[in-house]
């Protein structure tokens, strides 16, 4: 999940919903060229990851359990599956990979835990569209944090995208506030979730870590521990248990893994545009299946946010193509 100058994150650093990726100029310039076959494979993997992730919010809605209980289920199921995957992938090298992150690995796991819980609260406390739009602000928040913490320059195009994102989310916030405090609380939880992941990305940038995958599973398990004291577990049907396992143990780790693999051989801006499809398709699917209308203010604000992020990604992609042409010359 690659970001700062708008945001830098190693491709193997996954997050709660689908990551939105924007590479730095430095990262793009230093990335080794990939073949056309590798690019096609990356495109297919990222596309599959997005398609796997699209029904995630709908499944969470259909399971219909307490928000903290959902965080526990996603944390336990996803954490165990992700940890098992790392044990298989790293083998005996896993302890060394964890030690390589140093004490900051604990902070990374903590940020992942917080994001997992906050995302579940956001989905439960506001519309799916609001929750997804809030999380879409992650790369812009990472850019701001990188500017303050690392002194990284924010290009004019990125500054404009940040301003447009703030304006769009302001429209969403106005709509949810007028509709009631609960919706606003969910939007705030979504923004806090995005903030924790933005901090996660910037910390990875500081550590110059190639992958945080070894601490993702433990981070999700930690999120389950944090949510457990607040969770209300009513008797769950077999269908609810299956749905809870599907969202936490199948959709979450599978989609993140596919996007992480695919983004290694795909331009970051192109990955970013593809993952934006989830922000659009997820709420539309929820609207079509269970009739959850996002609201006029959310539609207006969402159009502004998505336009800003799409134009910014196109600018990054064009810049990457220009650098590649210059290098070839």
TrEMBL record:
Listed SUPFAM superfamilies: Multidrug resistance efflux transporter EmrE (SSF103481)
Annotated coiled-coil segments of the chain: none
GO cellular component: membrane
KW Transmembrane (keyword) present: yes
Top-level taxon of origin: Bacteria
Keywords: Membrane, Transmembrane, Transmembrane helix
Transmembrane segments: 43-62, 68-91, 103-125, 131-150, 159-177, 183-204, 211-232, 238-261, 273-290, 296-315
InterPro entries per record: EmrE-like (IPR037185)
PANTHER family cross-referenced by the UniProt entry: ACYL-MALONYL CONDENSING ENZYME-RELATED
Name the UniProt record assigns to this protein: EamA-like transporter family protein
């Amino acid at each position: 999940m690659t970001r700062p100058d708008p945001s830098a994150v190693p491709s193997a650093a996954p997050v709660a919903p689908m990551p939105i990726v924007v590479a730095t100029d430095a990262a793009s310039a230093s990335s080794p060229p990939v073949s056309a076959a590798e690019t096609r494979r990356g495109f297919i993997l990222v596309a599959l990851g997005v398609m796997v992730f699209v029904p995630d919010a709908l499944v969470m809605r259909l399971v219909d359990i307490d928000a903290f209980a959902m965080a526990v289920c996603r944390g336990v199921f996803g954490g165990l599956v992700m940890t098992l995957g790392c044990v298989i992938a790293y083998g005996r090298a896993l302890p060394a990979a964890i030690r390589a992150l140093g004490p900051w690995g604990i902070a990374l796991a903590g940020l992942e835990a917080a994001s997992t819980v906050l995302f579940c609260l956001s989905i439960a406390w506001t519309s799916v569209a609001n929750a997804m739009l809030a999380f879409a602000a992650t790369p812009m928040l990472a850019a701001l944090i990188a500017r303050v913490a690392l002194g990284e320059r924010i290009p004019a195009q990125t500054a404009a995208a940040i301003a447009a994102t703030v304006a769009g989310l302001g429209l969403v916030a106005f709509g949810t506030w007028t509709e009631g405090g609960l919706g606003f609380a969910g939007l705030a939880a979504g923004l806090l979730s995005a903030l924790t992941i933005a901090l996660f990305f910037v910390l990875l940038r500081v550590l110059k870590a190639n992958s945080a995958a070894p601490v993702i599973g433990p981070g999700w398990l930690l999120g389950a521990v944090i949510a457990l004291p607040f969770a209300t577990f009513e008797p769950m049907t077999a269908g609810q248990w299956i749905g809870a396992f599907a969202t936490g143990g199948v959709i979450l780790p599978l989609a993140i893994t596919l996007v992480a693999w695919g983004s290694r051989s795909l331009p970051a801006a192109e990955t970013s545009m593809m993952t934006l499809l989830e922000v659009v398709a997820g709420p539309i699917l929820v609207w079509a299946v269970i009739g959850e209308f996002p609201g006029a203010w959310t539609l207006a604000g969402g159009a502004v946010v998505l336009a800003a992020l799409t134009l910014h990604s196109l600018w990054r992609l064009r810049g990457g193509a220009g650098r590649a042409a210059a290098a070839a010359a």
